[in-house]
Each structure stands twice: as C-alpha cells, then as structure tokens.
C-alpha cells in the first residue's frame, strides 16, 4: 500500500497571494545572491501585480505541503512580445517557484510534468516558457527537464528572450498521484 501524497495541488485563491509574493521575494533574493539578475528587486511590484492578476484569472496554482504553500506555477497564453503566431498553439508556463525549504525534492520537475499533462489534456502540442538570457543555469535546468531552446529574441525594454518548448505528454497516473488534487 502506498502512502498518500504529502502534496496538494490546487488553484490559487486571493488569500494565497501573500504566500506567492513571499515565494517571489525568496526567489529574487536567492537569484541575487548568485549574481543572476532575473527577478531583481526592481521588479518586485510588477511581479506581485502579475501574481495577483494570474490568481484572479484562475491561471495560478499552488502546491501545499501540510497546508503550507511551498510552490506555485502559472499557466496561460503566449507573451506576444516573444512568441509569434506562426509558432503555433501551445500552453505557456510562467512563474514556477519552489520554496528554498523544499528545493532539491523534485517538485519543480513534478510541476513541469503536470503542466505538460495539462497541455496534452487541452489539446496543445507543446508546453512553452521563456527565461532571461543571462540565467544560463535555468536554461540548463529546463533542458534537463526535456525542453529545447527554440530561439533567443531581443525585445527592447525587456530582459527576457530565451524561448523553450517541450512536447505535451500525459503524465503517468502514478506521477500525478504525487499531487493530490
């Protein structure tokens, strides 16, 4: 007999926004300590507004461990500054964050598999994301998770532009069982 999942995945609610902002601030600090400019403090207000909007629109999800929000991911449509219509249909992954207290447990990979499963369930051929060009470690992480680099674009006034995609695929029921929903 298998033990029940310690994790519960659900749509984020308005009451979760402070926890999401705390995850964002923790990620900003962690990145800054490593000299990575992605999500620097100057973007904190913008990041908080985007998290609140994604929650209000029903696009943000939270992962809880014993009732504590320990990760989040947002799914949605394309950033039209980066992706072209001719790139074709896709589901887009944004703001994947895992609390440092839960780092190294495979939660990020689990949420990526879940997002790929969501893309497949809704008929999208691929899951896409973008990262800042200077965050090479994150690019390596996503490539190790099955994403391929599509291209890098330069958009004036934007600090993002390395584009990745991974084929949509249904996750195994055993893998999804790790996320009680």
Automatic annotation (TrEMBL):
Keywords: Acyltransferase, Transferase
Domain N-acetyltransferase: 7-169
A GO term, aspect molecular function: acyltransferase activity, transferring groups other than amino-acyl groups
Listed name of the protein: GNAT family N-acetyltransferase
Keyword Protein transport: no
Signal peptide feature range: none
PANTHER family: ACETYLTRANSFERASE, AMINOALKYLPHOSPHONATE N-ACETYLTRANSFERASE-RELATED-RELATED
Keyword Transferase in annotation: yes
């Amino acid at each position: 007999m298998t033990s029940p999942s310690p994790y519960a995945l659900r749509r984020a609610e308005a009451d979760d926004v402070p926890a999401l902002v705390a995850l964002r601030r923790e990620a900003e600090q962690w990145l800054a300590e490593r000299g990575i400019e992605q999500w620097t403090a100057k973007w904190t207000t913008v990041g908080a507004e985007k998290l609140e909007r994604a929650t209000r629109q029903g696009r943000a999800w939270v992962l809880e461990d014993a009732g504590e929000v320990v990760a989040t991911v947002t799914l949605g449509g394309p950033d039209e500054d980066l992706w072209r219509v001719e790139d074709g249909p896709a589901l887009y992954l944004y703001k994947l964050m895992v609390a440092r207290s839960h780092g190294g447990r495979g939660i990020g990979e689990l949420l990526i598999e879940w997002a790929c499963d969501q893309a497949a369930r809704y008929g999208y051929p691929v899951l896409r994301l973008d990262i800042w060009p200077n965050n090479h470690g994150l690019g390596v992480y996503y490539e190790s998770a099955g994403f391929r680099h599509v291209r890098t674009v330069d958009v004036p006034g934007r600090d993002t532009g390395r584009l990745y995609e991974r084929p949509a695929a249904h996750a195994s029921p055993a893998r999804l069982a790790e996320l009680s929903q």
